[in-house]
Each structure stands twice: as C-alpha cells, then as structure tokens.
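quick one, 724 residues, struct below
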Amino acid sequence: MQRLVRRLYEGWRCRLADDEQPFKSVLVLFIALLTVLTATLAGLQVDASIHAATAGRTADAIGADAAGRSTGSLIQTNSDLGVYRRWLELVFDTAWAQRASESDTVLLEDRVDPALATELLRIDRDLAEWARRQSPLLQPPYEADAKSPIDIASLDAERNVGPAVRADQDRRIAQAEAASWGRRAADYVTAITLIAVGLFFLGLAAALGGTARRILTVSGVAFGLVALISGVAISARPMDSVPTAAVDAMVEAEMDMSKGAWTASTERVAEADRRNWEAAIAAAERAVQLAPGYPSTWLVRADARLRYANALVLAREQSPGEAGPLLDQALADYRHYTAIDDTSYAAWWSLGWAAYLDGDAPTAIAAADRALALAPDQFSLYLNRGLARLTAGDVAGFRADIDTALSVAARAQLDSNGWFFGQNDYDIGRLIVLRPNEAPQLADAQRRIREAAVSARIGRPIASDGGGSIERATIRSLTLDQGARLVEQKIVAPADRIPILGVAGFRLSLAGRGVPDGAMVSVRVWEDGVESPEYRIDRPWPDTASQMVIDLVSPYGRMGQVVDAAEYEIAIFIDGATRATQEFRVDAATLKLTASKFVEALADSLHTCAAPQAADGGRQSTTCVMTGLTRDNGLEVIVTADASDSIDRLVLSTPNSLPIAESIVRETGGVWFSVLLESSIASQAQNWIATVQPGGSATFGAATFSLDATAGDGGRITLTMTVQ
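---
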C-alpha cells in the first residue's frame, strides 16, 4: 500500500504538479473530482426522476383502470340481481303451473286445461334453469332458493370490494413510491447545488492568493465533502415498500368487514357477522405486523375494531363488556394513524364516533371539529358532533348542529347523503332506547332527519302546517289468492301483533283533509328500525279526492312470499312533512300453512276430510283419513285450529295392530312436517321423529312433539304436535 501511494505521489509530482504554483495543481485536481461527482449525482438524479415519473404514471393507470372495473362490476352485479329476480318470478310461475297441472282447482276464474298447464310448467322450468345458469348468485357458494336470501354480501365483497381495495392500495403504494423517488431526485439536486457552490469557491481560490485562497479552498473542499457524503447517504437510503402479503391481508380484512352489517336489526349480533368481523380484525393484525410503517394497515385495523364494536353497542340484545376493549383498541389505532396523517377526514370522523360510543364526549367533539375543517360538506359529521354535544349537556349546541346538518345536506346534495340519512336514522333510533335521558331530543332529531330524507328524494321543500292533514289512516294485511290477486284481511291496529301466515303486504287507506291537489304523499316503512326500500312510495294526491289507497307489497310479496317477521313502523308524509305514523308487530310463525290450507293439501294427497267440527275454546277440528280406508285400517289426521285459522294441534295416528304402523306414522309425519313447518324446525323435528322411542317428547321453537303407543285391540301409534 505504501509503495502504491508513493508511486501515485511521484506520478503527480512528475506529470501534474506545477513547480511554480503547486497549490494550484491541488485545486485543479479537486475541481476535477467534484466535476466527476457532479456528473454522477446528475445521472442518479435523472434516474430517480424517471422512476418517480414511472411510478406516477403507474398510479394514474391503476386509478383509471380501477374506475372502469368498478363501473363494470356494479353494472354486472345489478344485472345478476335482475336475473335473480326473474328466476324468483319463474319459480313462482312454476309452482302455479305445477298446482294447475295436478289439480282441478278453479284458478284465475277459469278452469285451466291440464295439457296447457303441463306445457306452461315445462316452459317455466326451462326458463328457470336458463336463468340459474346466467347468474353467479344462483351458483355455489351464493346459491339460494326462493325461501332463503341470496348471499349478495359475499359476491359484492369478492367482485367489488376486494378489487376496489386492492386497486386503491396499489395506487397509494405507487403514489408513495413516486413521492419517495421524487424526494430522492430533489435531494440529489440539493447535493449538486452544494457541489456547484464548492466548485465556485475552488475556482475563486485558484484565481486569488494569500489568506483568501486558503479560506476559499477549505470552504470549497468542505462543500464537496458534504455533497459526497450526502450523495452516498441518499443512494444508500432504502426506498419505502409494502410487502405484497400485507396488501393481501388488508384486502382480506376489508372484504370480511363488508360482509358484516352496520345495522344489526336482529335481536343480537348475528354469529355470521361476528365471524366476519373477527376474521377482519385477525387479517388486519397480520397487515400491521407485516408493514407496521405503512399507516393504512393501522387504519384498516381500527376500522375493523370499530365496526365490530358499533354493532355490539347498537344491537337490540346487548353484550356487556365486549364493546369496551374494542373501542379502546380502535381509538389507539386511530390516534396512531392521525399522528402520521392528520389530513384524512374519514379517520378523524371514525375516531370521533369511537370516542362517542366509548363515552368520551370531549374527544368526540374535538375529532368532529377536525373532520369538519377538512370536509365541511359531510352533513353526518354535524350530526355526530351534535350527539356528542347532547351527551355533554349542550342541548343548544345539539340543536344548532342538527339545523346545520340538514341545511348542509340540502345544499351539498352528495351521492352519499341517502346512505347516511338511513344510517343516522337507525343509529338515533337505537340511541333513543339506549339513552332514555336524551330520548325526547333524539326523537325530534330522528323525525327531522326522516323528513329531510323524504324531501331530498321527492325534490320538494318540507311543507308547512298548511299542507293538509291525514284524518284517518287504516292499515289492512293482504294475502294472495290462488289467482295471485291481493285480498284484504284484518285491520292492523296500533301496537297490534299479527301472525305472519299468508301476509304478502299491507293496504293503506288514507282519508285526508285540505290536502292540495298534486301534493306528494310519501310512505316509508321501517322493519326493526331499518327502512325497507321495497316499500318506499312517493305518489301525488289524486286531484279533487279526499281519499287515497296505497298497497305496500314488495316484488317478492307479489310472487307469494310472506313479509318479514319484525317490528314495523309506517310513516306517512305530505310534501316531506310527517302527517301520521303507526307501529305494530308481525310475529314469526312456526307453521307455513294455515289450517284450511293444510286440509286442502291433505285433500289433494289422497285423503278424505270431514266437515270441520266445533272444538273447545272456540276452535275447530277437522278429521281426515286416507281415501278408501277407515280409521281402523288407515292413517287418521286431526287438525285443530284457533279462530284465526292457525293450527294449534296436529295428531297423526294409525292402529297399532298394523305390522308397519310405527313406520307409517314416522314417515308420514316427517313428510307432513317438512311441508308444514319452517325449515329450521322441520329438520330438527324430522330427525327426532326418525329416532325417538314411543313415550318420548321434545320441543323445537314453539312446537312440542310427542310419540305415544297404546296396546290392545284399540291401541294406536300417535304422533302429536302442539303449537304454543
């Protein structure tokens, strides 16, 4: 090494040194070295700029492609839903044709030609099978039938949510990469600027002498060394990157979250929703572990925890102690995220809502203030802040925020307003129950939100008190007859409880006073606090009329399906102003058929039924035996019904002297209960009937079953079902 240094020194002395001004030769050498360094850094700067531009174009391309794919996916989803609805109609038509081909019942006021009915059945079955092949909703794993809901949430998650989240994260990562390369390019420019200053100083030093030369030389060399060190540090600095596995985990978490319902309208949080949120939290945990430096992973985990906690807090059946830890963890994640990026109004919004649910009103108000500074057109933020102010005791501030929120909603007209109207309506409805001390103010706010939602939909300002009134609103339940015509049933009184049997919808008869011609009458229906869009009606009041009739029947109801069992609230608006409301309940039924329908089914399946006989308690009893046989050598079925035609007792029996008596009762009972009972109860009852020993009994839902055997000449095997 010493020999090499000596040779270099001697070479410099012989070839480069200036004997008269040796110091100037040193300056020239430094200038040359800095010039080479400048060229190197300039090349690196150009390379970084190219990478930044490429990443930026990639981000733009991802965004454009995602927009196109999202639009296409939504169109395809709507198309699939249309095919599914058409399939349901065909299923209904097929059932009609099946009945017509097998029975001589008078349908549609005319006797149907059996040959024509058979041909219609074939056509409808072919069309239904074709429709099934056209939509993934009718394929595994989303396959459904006319009696069960389709799994649209899973399809939407896989087709829309997952690709959208992946595209968004890929675009964000590409943008971050572009920004990182851009910073590197800018840092190279800074280093080149330092070299330029150093070269300038060295150039002056070469032209001057004395103390000035020494000072300028030292300064120029110092600038050059700083630039060299900076260039090395810039080149060695790692680029920001997010592992693909972390993105996969984030996409998985978002998809799982999208399958869980914000509005838990059932009595408790559904087990399926619990599994989805727990899976979302677990996937988000993996994302944070894989990429703790990527802020979005913390935001996804916070959202998953808040969604789960929100459902637990607002569920009709509370889960004490479950929501608190989730809210605390979500708040910690939101605080971590906002400390890195305080420009996301959505993060501040969620932080504020989590704090409100956790009982921290001051934090909720502060977070809402920050979110509103970033997004002043989001009316729901004013509502959230108002709720926190009400909890903090600031009633005036609450009312002011409600006024501002509805004013902003009317002015901004954002596409998201409709969803937020519905979500805030549900949330406030649950808070009315959970916070009785705030109930009067919350109920008034809920009424105003509903009126604002109706006003926005019909495009008219909310009417004043001079817009007319509803003197009488009568609700009747509706059923479908065999000709698919709507038939009025009993009047539904306020706070009434009606059985679900056969109820396809409701008929609303309105008597008005002073209602202007053309005034818009709007009807909205809530099931367990959630508005049902299939019953949404906006219709002008008939000219010169004092009465109006509106049928509330969904497309599924017109195809023969019964309404949902739920707490119902029907509200009537005139030009957006509330004019009448009524609440009642439709009770779930253990049985799918009324007594008369079940007797008809028995008569259509080789049974002869006697005329109904009076039984105790105002009930009626109908006895049927297998056609051509008697009670002593065949199966006897006794159907007992209450005054509303609901079966409350069903007895199947056959003589114990028959060799196959027990098999007849078990097999026939299993068949009839599968027809008569709701599917979940029917499967349990069938399993029990197939294995139980005589003398056993069991209760499934509201139905109690027993199997008994008596010996002797008059002994019988008897299967009994009693409905509470």
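Residues 242-341 form one domain.
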